[in-house]
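Changelog note: in this version the structure field was regenerated for every chain. One regenerated record is shown below for reference.
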Amino acid sequence: MKIEYKDADGKVLELEVSDEIGQFYFSSVKEAKKSDRRNTRPDRHTSLESFVYEDKRFFTAPSNPMQEAVEDCEVERLLSCLNDRQRELVRRCVIEGWSYTEIAVQEGKDESAVRHAVKRALKKMKKTFF
């Protein structure tokens, strides 16, 4: 099988390779083109927070009062009103950033059960401190 290869100077080279290597080469070129196409559309992956005009940000992330409280206050004081399981769930989800699915898989429970347990714990914290 012959492969035409264009080097950086624009010269076209013809190489004789086995069929196996040729198929591998063509599949890798095809995958590289797919990847390049995905990466050449930055507008699809740019968050609004990154848009700045004349040193002003026009879009900011929505504030999360519970996250701000965790950052501003002593964590143990906030978690003191919760039982052990609720405390651990809030620590993993809010502080460490685990997803409900990751916790559910680890505990062998349904994702919705973990999500509701976390929401109940956050509601309890909010009622106690805010």
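Spot check on this record: The longest helix spans residues 19-39. The beta strands are 2-6, 12-16, 52-53, 56-57.
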